[in-house]
Amino acid sequence: MPVAATPAAPAPTPNPAPAFAPAPAPVPVAEPVAAEAPKKASWLSRLKQGLSRTGQSIGGIFIGVKVDENLFEELESALIMADAGLEATEKLLTALRARVKKERIEDPAKVKTALRQVLADHLRPLERAFDLTRAKPLVVMIAGVNGAGKTTSIGKLAHTFQRQGASVLLAAGDTFRAAAREQLVEWGSRNNVSVIAQDGGDPAAVAFDSVNAGRARGMGVVMVDTAGRLPTQLHLMEELKKIRRVIGKADATAPHEVLLVVDGNTGQNALAQIRAFDAAITLTGLVVTKLDGTAKGGTLAAVAAGSQGVRPIPVYWIGVGESLEDLQPFVADEFAAALLAD
Ligand SMILES: Nc1nc2c(ncn2[C@@H]2O[C@H](COP(=O)(O)OP(=O)(O)O)[C@@H](O)[C@H]2O)c(=O)[nH]1
Ligand SMILES: [Mg+2]
Fold first, then answer.
1. At what angle do helices 85-102 and 108-123 cross, to 10 degrees?
2. Which fold has domain 35-126?
């Protein structure tokens, strides 16, 4: 089989380089515990700032109003403008109306609290902890459209996984552009992890070699980057299927996770992306990026409602900025609170 026979030869260099970049032992980053609280506050507030740009700021609707039909109508249009979609909007409002009636809520601030709880309950099925230890190496394939934040998220995840004690190997499966490879190598060196790359070549071969190398080196996680592609580019979707298949030839249980990275600004089109990538490569999770600057935070409510035929795929992480720490686990309660911030 040609793929298996392809060696992971790096670009010829003046020095007879080893087959792979040297693998320095991951340096455990000790973070003072006290630093966690302000850090959390800062990304939460960025998430709030971003999400509160949502149309007319859902949280702002509750100020100086009476609890009447008008309020529900305002909420309905605000949720739709935030890209929550019709199904989720209807479901949320039905639940909210029932609660307001049952509990005889007359204070708009209490309606807001009730909506926050209803929304958190609605989003909770998407909340799932990422299990790093269920395979060794855990093979994670990452896909998405161009510019969604795949490579950046891989860099952030390498940081996160190392902090959790796992050794990480990256595979530069975006072989179309030299710049893409370099970007991943840069993230690799920032995190002190090695990157398996090939000059040009077949992304499936890079993925195959990486899984084998990950096993040979006893790595905890192998993350496979891929080139961005649109669901309408059918030959590229076929290529993605091939990458997935070939990973399975290196390890029959892999890939253990197949993640779609979605730009949080995408709005309703995110649903079409999720559906198409899921049909091609059977996703196991989502990473939703750029929530620090979006007005379309309601999209996750649409995913949870299974709008447009999407499966409610777990959201492992959300991206709230460009630095290494700006990838956070998705927590339904926090997200609902941020979405309803004033
Ligand atoms: N503000 C912000 N920018 C992000 C986030 N995630 C990624 N980006 C930026 O989005 C751009 C595209 O990211 P990249 O990882 O290259 O996308 P890829 O084509 O999917 O690999 C870069 O400028 C990133 O810094 C995020 O959570 N917040
Ligand atoms: Mg990339």
1. 130
2. Four Helix Bundle (Hemerythrin (Met), subunit A) (1.20.120)
Q: How far, in Å, CA of 101 to CA of 268, rounded?
A: 31
Mutation choice for ligand 1 from 261, 322, 326, CB with most ligand atoms inside 8 A = 322
Hey, how many other C-beta atoms are within 10 angstroms of the C-beta on 155?
Answer: 25
151 lines ligand 1 (CB under 6 A): yes
For ligand 2, the distance from its centroid to the CA atom of residue 153, given in whole angstroms, is 9
Taking the CA atoms of 219, 277, 321 and 146 in sequence, report the sign of the dihedral they define: positive
- Here the tokens at position 265 are 């600004």
Which segments of the chain have a pLDDT < 50?
1-34
Q: Which helix (H) or strand (E) holds 93?
A: helix 85-102
Decide: 322 in ligand 1 pocket, CB within 6 A.
yes
- What is the distance in A from the centroid of ligand 2 to the CA of 147? 7
pLDDT of 57 reads: 77
CATH class of residue range 131-331 = alpha beta
Ligand 2 centre and the CA of 172: distance in Å?
Answer: 9
In angstroms, what is the span from residue 218 Cα to ligand 1's centroid?
Answer: 30
Per-domain boundaries in the chain: 35-126, 131-331
Model confidence, pTM: 0.87
Helix (H, G, I), strand (E, B) or coil at 120: helix
What is the helix (H) or strand (E) element at residue 327, kind and residue range? strand 327-329
